[in-house]
Amino acid sequence: MLEQLNTTETKSENDSKKTSIYSLQLQQLKDWLSENGEKPFRAEQIYDWLYKKRISTFEEMSNLSKSLRDKLSNHFELTTLKTVIKQTSSDGTIKFLFELFDGYSIETVLMRHDYGNSVCVTTQVGCRIGCTFCASTLGGLKRHLEAGEIVAQVVTVQQALDETDERVSSVVIMGIGEPFDNYDNMLSFLKIINYDTGLNIGARHITVSTSGIVPKIYQFADENMQINFAISLHAPNTELRSRLMPINKAYKLDDLMKAVRYYIDKTGRRISFEYGLFGGVNDSVEHAEELAVLLKGLKCHVNLIPVNYVPERDYVRTPKDKIFAFEKALKKHGINVTIRREHGHDIDAACGQLRAKERKEETR
């Protein structure tokens, strides 16, 4: 099945549900207005209500005619997410467990940095990639999120920040799910949050991460967007990577690295490699030396991630001295490397962990 990840779609459980208005790109909204006898310029006004004023009902769009508001209400859903749990860490990180219209749940995380507020969004209910260290994949994939359900995560977090006059300054697509397995909705989400008439999140303040669906990497390179791009690598050789990440059996490491080189050559942009450190598994100096050889000559950056403990998984965190030794070995070879700052250590920080803990029926 993994070989077909780039084309396989999982059907929504409620195809009769109205489309989320947050799913419409600006031009799509203009086209819909024209097709329904309305002026296309109303799209900018609607976007202003959705993303600047962040209203919660169509009736609040007071500069639109009653007939247009009725049309919008009849055709579209103004997606709202029910907050089931809101965990706040001592470092300011906030993890939300949101319930969707069909009762499924997703996680969204607000992380506070010196440079601003970052939101980590989810793209699927569950995940089928099957990484052996990740809580997100427990129970497999339930369904894809539509673009509007991804957008609504950012809008909902921004509404929470409105109370303190703060704003979302960056977005990372690293939550539950494999973004490239839900490619079209992910791409639409990127365009919607990037519009200056919308949430106006700059492309260089958006990062998308993939576990390595090779055909989609080529496709994403050809989009030629200024979005930051990251690969979940986690191993310096194909044998170890296959043990940690079953997707490597479908898309071998050599093929992944060819796609990476294509992306860098096509876009001229640096790529990031996420490397989770698992105690006694992939964290030796020898592994670091092997990783340096793999990445030699690439325009790249390595983000070392001390893993969060997940009860359902057997991996343990690498000791600090070994983390620093790994970092030092990479730097010795001229590899640009940082150690990711830990967020939410006193809450259910690992991706998918809160959902697994609170929604056991979804993650069996």
TrEMBL record:
Keyword terms: 4Fe-4S, Cytoplasm, Disulfide bond, Iron, Iron-sulfur, Metal-binding, Methyltransferase, rRNA processing, S-adenosyl-L-methionine, Transferase, tRNA processing
Described purpose of this protein according to its UniProt entry: Specifically methylates position 2 of adenine 2503 in 23S rRNA and position 2 of adenine 37 in tRNAs.
Organism: Neobacillus massiliamazoniensis
Catalyzed reaction equations: adenosine(37) in tRNA + 2 reduced [2Fe-2S]-[ferredoxin] + 2 S-adenosyl-L-methionine = 2-methyladenosine(37) in tRNA + 5'-deoxyadenosine + L-methionine + 2 oxidized [2Fe-2S]-[ferredoxin] + S-adenosyl-L-homocysteine; adenosine(2503) in 23S rRNA + 2 reduced [2Fe-2S]-[ferredoxin] + 2 S-adenosyl-L-methionine = 2-methyladenosine(2503) in 23S rRNA + 5'-deoxyadenosine + L-methionine + 2 oxidized [2Fe-2S]-[ferredoxin] + S-adenosyl-L-homocysteine
Active site, UniProt feature: E107, C351
GO annotation terms (biological process): rRNA base methylation; tRNA methylation
SUPFAM superfamilies for the chain: Radical SAM enzymes (SSF102114)
List of residues binding [4Fe-4S] cluster: C127, C131, C134
Cited InterPro entries: Aldolase_TIM, Methyltransferase_A, RlmN_N, RNA_MTrfase_RlmN, rRNA_lsu_MTrfase_RlmN/Cfr, rSAM, rSAM_sf
Additional observations: Reaction proceeds by a ping-pong mechanism involving intermediate methylation of a conserved cysteine residue.
Family, similarity comment: Belongs to the radical SAM superfamily. RlmN family.
Cofactor(s) in the UniProt record: [4Fe-4S] cluster
Keyword presence, Cytoplasm: yes
Statement: the UniProt record of this protein carries the keyword Transferase: yes
Residues annotated as binding S-adenosyl-L-methionine: G177, E178, S209, S232, L233, H234, N308
Gene Ontology terms for molecular function: 4 iron, 4 sulfur cluster binding; metal ion binding; rRNA (adenine(2503)-C2-)-methyltransferase activity; rRNA binding; tRNA (adenine(37)-C2)-methyltransferase activity; tRNA binding
Subcellular location: Cytoplasm
Gene Ontology CC, one term: cytoplasm
EC numbers on record: 2.1.1.192
Domain of life according to the entry: Bacteria
Species lineage: Bacteria, Bacillati, Bacillota, Bacilli, Bacillales
EC supergroup of this enzyme: transferase
Domain Radical SAM core: 113-346
Protein name: Probable dual-specificity RNA methyltransferase RlmN
Cofactor note: Binds 1 [4Fe-4S] cluster. The cluster is coordinated with 3 cysteines and an exchangeable S-adenosyl-L-methionine.
